[in-house]
Amino acid sequence: MFTNRLSRRDLIRSAAMSSIAAPLFVPGSVLGKDGDSAASERVTLGHIGVGNRGRGVLSGFLRNNKSQCVAAADAYSNHRQAFETRTKGKAYADFRDLLARDDIDAVVIATPDHWHVPMAVAAARAGKDAYVEKPLGISIEQDLICRKVFRENNRMFQYGTQQRSMGACHKGCELVRQGLIGELKRIEVVAPNGNGGGEINPTEPPEILDYDMWLGPARKVPYTVGRCRPPGTYWNYEASIGYLAGWGAHPLDIMVWGCDADLLGPVTVEGTGQITPDALFDTVHNWDMDVNFGGKVAMKFTPGRDSTKFIGTDGWVRVWRGGCDAEPKSLLEKQIPDDKLILARSHRHDGNFVDSVLSREDPVSNIEHAVRSDVISHLCDIAVRLDRKVTWDPKKETIVGDPEAAKMMHRDMRAPWTLDG
């Protein structure tokens, strides 16, 4: 009897496979030796953005014996060459060539901020799951579209908020979720600051850079030395909203993980911040934001070392990267049985995503939570730029009572780029 046996990749890929050429050399690990999964049972990954942050993310996935990093895309030719040398995979100048490959299960997006959502949406529509570095979109509208597309296409999404895969962060948020600090009254969120300045004199882009592809949907502006490398990639408003989201994503994500305060009712956001005019680094910094969730929980958001503090009627818990503190101290000794845990546990963020692709169950940092935390960053940005209070309706998912503020939920994209299907 003839049996047509489908592999795991056949089952999860939405697009039909055409043909796959066999490699000329097959290492033992491809056949499942040395503790590795056989190639047909491993998740094949394409990496979009393999410079700076992307190199570090790539290293994590290369250590995972359930995944194969087979392709990359990057606007810098030297980044592409380095990837090919390191992995023996294929690198492309245009990410759409990578997405066209039907042998790729998922993508890892570690580009500048303005590309995160456009690339993620394109990947989901191409039948790929996606691991997306934070922050999410450069507008609230982008966030909402991204969530809609991933859910409609039944794609897995992992947000690059790695603190969810750190034991101390899980411990602290679990204590809050278990109600062990009593009724939540106040949250204090702290994230590293941005800055003003930066060289604005235009010059010719280097030969190794496809500058038009780097800009993509961002407004066409002259190249400057600092625009396409950190901190310019994080602190320029053409491509981001600065560290309100770029670093704020981490402690705000922990806030969402530890409670549902942002869903209690109308969210009001007001405060101050500095924007340096006529500078390359022109995103909000030195912010001091007051947020109120449904008239029940207050939040303070200020610059400083990354942390999230939950303050309740019976105590407090403070969480930061690699640490957790509490009052009373006895909370830290509390042992919660695995079968009583409210929050999912993850020990490696990249591994958790690979497992999600295989199991078809949401990873620890899902798209819903990514949108919720990123929206708070955008509301802060809009409130500072308009110099007034803005109000968000979490049920209608829109800014209410202020048409000008509501318009700022949208950011134009440069043609021909679009989020339309």
Number of DSSP E strands = 15
Q: Specify Rg, calculated over alpha carbons.
A: 22 Å
Strand share of the residues? 15-25%
**Poorly predicted residue ranges:** 1-35
CATH class of the largest domain: Alpha Beta
Structural category: alpha/beta
CATH topology of the largest domain: Dihydrodipicolinate Reductase, domain 2
CATH architecture of the largest domain: 2-Layer Sandwich
Please give the largest β-sheet. Answer: 9 strands, mixed
**Helix share bin:** 25-40%
Q: What is the first-to-last residue Cα distance?
A: 44 Å
Shape: globular
SSE order, one letter for each helix or strand: HEHEHEHEHEHEHEHHHHEEEEEEHHEEH
Number of discrete helical segments: 14
Q: How would you describe this protein?
A:
- It contains 14 helices and 15 strands.
- The protein has 2 domains: 8-163, Rossmann fold (3-Layer(aba) Sandwich), CATH 3.40.50.720; 166-343 and 367-407, Dihydrodipicolinate Reductase, domain 2.
- The longest helix is centred in the last third of the chain and has 20 residues, at 367-386.
- Residues 1-35 have low confidence and may be disordered.
- Helix 11 (249-258) crosses helix 13 (367-386).
- The protein is globular and about 60 Å long.
- The chain has 421 residues and is α/β, with parallel strands linked by helices.
- The chain has a 9-stranded mixed beta sheet. A 6-stranded parallel beta sheet has the order 3-2-1-4-5-6, sandwiched between helices.
- 46% of the residues are buried.
